[in-house]
Amino acid sequence: MYLYGVHFLLETDCRPLIGLLNKPDLPNDAASRWIGYILQFDFEISHIKGVENCVADAISRRVITDPDHKSKIIKQLHEMGEGGHRGRDATKKNI
């Protein structure tokens, strides 16, 4: 990976990410793994407003007009193990 050993500035419009990086107790295992991975890099993080984020990825700014396509995407993301919903019972147990 070309970022190992290189100090860099991470600019994000995701304010919750900054909060997670500064918080010692993470809410769940997935968030802990994500943050653990991110923290292995040498970086500074800076918040920028979403409207000023001119390099945002196309997916985050894309408008999906086809309702069937939108439903398929939501279903796929909902069922993902890493970031998706783990179901009513698992969520209830987690609370």
TrEMBL record:
This is Retrovirus-related Pol polyprotein from transposon. The lineage of its organism: Eukaryota, Fungi, Fungi incertae sedis, Zoopagomycota, Kickxellomycotina.
